[in-house]
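Give me C-alpha cells for this 245-residue protein.
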Amino acid sequence: TPGEAAVLAIQAGVDLIAYGPNMGEGTQIQAMQAVADAVRTGLIDENRLDESVRRLLRTKQSMGLFDWHPLEPESASQRIDLDGHQQLVMELFRAGVTIAHDDAGLLPLAAPRVLIIHPANRMDIYRECSPYRDDIRWLAVSDRPALGEVDLARSIASQVDVVVVFTRDAYHEAAQQALVTALPLEKTVVVALISPYDYLRFPQVAGYVVTYSPLPASAPVACAVLFGEQPATGVLAVDLSAVRP
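Here you go.
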C-alpha cells in the first residue's frame, strides 16, 4: 500500500516522498498517517525523520529559498536556458535508453522486412525512425487497440522478419497486452516508452528496450538505438530476471 511504501522508503533513507498528480489527497493522508503511526510504534526512529528535515532545510538554504521573491514572468526567457535544458534532456536519454535483452540478436534492425507498430498519436516515432530505412512497414494503433487493430497487426506481422512495437504503460492496459501477445513473440522487439515493467506482461518477447519516459526526446534516441546509429549505454534500473523465460 502507499502507506507501507512510505514507511519502507523512509527506512531506506529517502528524505522526500513526492506523489504524482494521480495520487488522491485521501491516499496521501493515509501514507502520512502510516508514517506517523510507524514513529509511535517505534518502527521508525523520530531521529531518522529529524535527519531528513535537516538535510531538506540545508538544501533549501543552499538554493536561497529562504530569501525567495517572486520573479517577473516577462523576463523568464532571459533567465531560463531552454536550449541548454533541451540538450541536457537529450543527453539523459542517450545515457539512459536500455536494451534490457536481445536474445534473438534482432538489434540493430538489419532484417530484410521490418514492421514498426507505434501509438497513433506519436507520429514523432515515425518521423525519427523512417529516415533510417525507406522499406519499413508501419502501423499506427490507438492507446487501447481494438480487435480489428490487433487482427491487422497480426496479419502484417506474419509477412515480415522482425516486429518492433512501442508500448506505453502496457502493464496496466489489457488492450496493449493483447496486441503484443498476438504478435509472433520470437521475432518481436518491444520498446517500452514509460514503465520498464511492461515486460512482466509478455516476458517471451525476443527483445526488450526501455526508454523510462514517453517524452518526445525518447523517440530520436530509441530509433538511433534500434538501427545501430548509437549504442544503448543505459543499465536496466529494475530486476526482471525472475520472469525471464
